[in-house]
Amino acid sequence: MMEDYKDLMIDLFFNTLVCKALLAGFGLSLTTGSLGCFLIWRRMAFFGDALAHSSLLGIALGILLHMDMNVGIVAICLLCAAILTKTTSHQHLSADVWLNIISYSALALGFLALSKSGSNADLESYLFGDILTLRVQDLYWIYGCSALVGLFFYWKWRELLLITLDEELAKTAGVSVGLVRATFMVTLAFTVAIALKAVGALLMPALLIMPAATASRFARSPEQMALIATGTAFLGVSIGLVAAISFNTPSGATIVVSCLTLFLGSMLFRAR
């Protein structure tokens, strides 16, 4: 009797973890799908990479100041987003040079700070992700970020598309290019920061880019591409989660591999 009750409790706990992970995956897909499309359209794929690397400094900040790590990560990602927006327009060095300088400098500073903090934080989960370890509080952050991104796209979708097409044309049409660009970077920074524990700093850019790249093979309009990318991201997370549990593999890496599999499968087809 006691053994049956114990097994029941284990199954219930396991199912709760899986449901929580799927909810987190759905919330993340709502943001990464659409944002990834704009990163591809604007050829800004390395921006996500730079923000993800810099997030390690945010983890160190949270530990050193004894505050919620999510707050530290968001703060550093927003700071790096502002710096990237300013420096990538620098005339003497190309954008990819600034991206490398800022991302790897923040990564190195984060490691140095953590090495001196004496903290026992599970850094591996932030580097490579573990969606099964997310707490209920993490779900609040994820869906709060999803609501923020959704409101932003609802408010500025046309302006974003116009800026992506031609910034000069957008200025002529009266669009505040600087404000829209800065707001986009803020939403991107929030998304990267919130998704770290699920996928990890080293793997987060893949969740932004791969679903959008897969969707680009089939979409006939920007809106359609964003919807397909969102669905592809959630499918990749779901398949990766099931595979990670079935084969006892790291969840973050398995999710990325599942997104890669979907992308490679899309290469076998051509959109009309």
Explain what you see.
Helices cover 81% and strands 0% of the residues. It has 272 residues and is mainly α. It has one domain (2-266): ABC transporter involved in vitamin B12 uptake, BtuC, CATH 1.10.3470.10. Helix 1 (2-41) crosses helix 9, helix 2 (45-64) packs across helix 8 (177-199) and helix 2 packs antiparallel against helix 9. The longest helix has 40 residues, at 2-41. The mean pLDDT is 82.
- Secondary-structure-based class equals mainly alpha
Element string (H = helix, E = strand) = HHHHHHHHHHH
CATH fold-level topology: ABC transporter involved in vitamin B12 uptake, BtuC
CATH superfamily caption? ABC transporter involved in vitamin B12 uptake, BtuC
Tell me the count of domains. 1
| Helix percent band | over 70%
The overall pLDDT average reads 82
Q: What CATH architecture would you give? A: Orthogonal Bundle
Class in CATH?
Answer: Mainly Alpha
